[in-house]
Amino acid sequence: xxxxxxxxxxxxxxxxxxxxxxxxxxxxxxxxxxxxxxxxxxxxxxxxxxxxxxxxxxxxxxxxxxxxxxxxxxxxxxxxxxxxxxxxxxxxxxxxxxxxxxxxxxxxxxxxxxxxxxxxxxxxxxxxxxxxxxxxxxxxxxxxxxxxxxxxxxxxxxxxxxxxxxxxxxxxxxxxxxxxxxxxxxxxxxxxxxxxxxxxxxxxxxxxxxxxxxxxxxxxxxxxxxxxxxxxxxxxxxxxxxxxxxxxxxxxxxx
Length: 255
Fold this sequence. Notes:
Elements: E1 8-12, H1 21-35, E2 40-44, H2 51-65, H3 67-80, E3 87-89, H4 95-105, E4 112-116, H5 126-130, E5 135-140, H6 144-161, E6 171-176, H7 185-197, E7 201-202, H8 234-239, H9 242-253
Parallel strand pairs: 1-4, 1-5, 2-3, 2-4, 5-6, 6-7
């Protein structure tokens, strides 16, 4: 009996909020699904705010109110001949069962599934769910509180989860987000050395600070960056090095 191919499960996860987990989930899901022709599904488990569920609702309104974006969306969906990727509302202690049910009953199997998870290890089911994620990416900033929290979180994943026999985790990677070009380079080098000494993997690509990461869609916009319905504009990707990040991401995940 032929078994269905299982999707690659990916999570942008950390114990600190406000560092870009949901943003990167939306960015990569949209680029992979709409531009690179992978089939993507997203499970939003970030209770109670459910940022990606809310983002999808805002994106629909924004596109419908903006004639330029409406034409872009029509052209895109006609060209790729597939629907927008689904964003499901879930919880950390039930998402694995729901994901399994979705894969078993889906006519179009997802190549990649993103889990948007809460930023605390105390959430019910979080560690058992993370143990079933294939690749974990954790955004960090040059802030002592953010770093200490993330390194502590990563230590739990590496020394508790990955040392268990039945974990599905293949890799854990930190990456610099919102890098301010005005900050002195030695700052990142020193932090990088600490991370390396701890035996934690740090991605080569850092993401430049950009208001685009914190800016919601506007009804007057002519270009798109963060959206669940359209992929980021290539020129904007270059400005913050997201294009380089995507290349490194694809090499790690081996899609």
